[in-house]
Amino acid sequence: MSETEAFWEDLYTTRAEGAPIWSGRVNPELAREVDDLAPGRALDLGCGEGGDAIHLARAGWEVVAVDVSPTALARAALAAADAGVADRITFERHDLGHTFPTGSFDLVTSAFFQSPLELDKAGVLRRSLAALAPGGRLVLVEHGAAPGWSEHQHVEFPTPAEVVASLDLDSLEAAYEVLVVEGRTRVASNPDGHHHGELLDTVVVVQRRP
C-alpha cells in the first residue's frame, strides 16, 4: 500500500471510526457551475464517498469517479446503488500522481482535491485539461482558507489567480479559455454540525476551445 493510499484509508476507517466523513450532498459551488451544462462524459477527481458523482449521474452524465481509497470507493458505489444511478457511474481506483483514467471527457470536476501529502496537483490538473474534449470544461473548487476548526490554520492556500497560473495554459498543445476565477464565501458548520460561520472557496473554470 502506498503512503497516499494508507493516509486516506486511515482517514476513512480509523480516524472516522468507520462512519461517513462527508454529507453525501453535492458541493454547492460545483453544482452552480455544472447544472446548466448539457450532460456528456464526466470525470470526478477524488470522488470520496460519491456525492458529486451521484449528482452528475442524476443529471444524465456518464461519470468516471476516481479515488485512491478503496473504502471511499466502496462507500460511493453503495451510495450510487441506493440512489439508483449505479449504471451511470464507473468507479476506478487511481493514485492520480501515478495513474490516470483513459479516454476524453466533456467535464472534469475537482472539489477539494487537496492533500497534506506531497502531490503534483498542477500536473494532475494539466493532464485533466489535456483529457478534455473540445468544448469541455474543468471545474475546480478548492479551499481558499482553512476552516476555523481545522488543524491547518498555518497553511497558506493559493489565490484563484495563482491556481490559474499553476496550470500554465499557454504551454499546453490545445487552446483554453478561463471562464471563472473567483473567491466565494459560504456559510458552513463544523463536522459536529454546529454553526461556524463563513468559509472561503476558490472557484476556477477553464474551457477547452472547440
Structure description:
By secondary structure, the chain is α/β, with parallel strands linked by helices. It has one domain (3-208): Rossmann fold, CATH 3.40.50.150. Helix content is 29%, strand content 30%. It contains six helices and seven strands. It has a seven-stranded mixed β-sheet. β2 (62-67), α4 (70-83) and β3 (89-93) form a beta-alpha-beta unit. α3 (51-58) packs parallel to α4. The longest helix is centred in the middle third of the chain and has 14 residues, at 70-83. The relative contact order is 0.15.
- How many domains is the backbone divided into? 1
Tell me the number of strands: 7
Q: Largest beta sheet: what is the strand line-up?
A: 3-2-1-4-5-7-6
Amino-to-carboxy terminus distance: 41 Å
Give the ordered list of helices and strands: HHEHEHEEHEHEE
Helix-residue proportion: 25-40%
Report the radius of gyration as a whole number of Å. Answer: 16 Å
Per CATH, the architecture is: 3-Layer(aba) Sandwich
Low-pLDDT windows of residues: none
The secondary-structure class comes to alpha/beta
Average residue pLDDT: 89
Oligomer: single chain
CATH fold-level topology: Rossmann fold
DSSP helix count?
A: 6
CATH superfamily: Vaccinia Virus protein VP39
Strand content: 25-35%
General form: globular
CATH classification, class level: Alpha Beta
Largest sheet: 7 strands, mixed
